[in-house]
Design a protein that fits this description.
78 residues, Rossmann fold, three-stranded parallel sheet, 3 strands
Length: 78
């Protein structure tokens, strides 16, 4: 399994390019986790870039140990 972990605020400089790259990665077998960080992250963009369903692949970075535990669980027990 190919896994991409995208950490960002959901405000890319070039949304079109980011979306095209994410679509290419997913069409080539990658799973993309979107991890929101920063003040007021724009989740709408991260949900477009991440794999579906959002509830599985989009996380908010509030507590690093919780995020790392969640990622490890989801990666090791798909």
């Amino acid at each position: 399994m190919k896994v991409v972990i995208l950490v960002g605020d959901g405000q890319s400089v070039d949304h079109g390019r980011a979306l095209a790259t994410a679509d290419w990665l997913k069409s080539n077998g990658a799973v993309i986790y979107g991890i929101a960080n920063g003040d007021g992250p724009r989740l709408s963009e991260l949900t477009q870039l991440a794999s579906s369903p959002d509830s599985q692949y989009v996380l908010q970075l509030g507590d690093i140990p919780t995020v790392s535990d969640t990622l490890l669980d989801r990666l090791c027990n798909p």
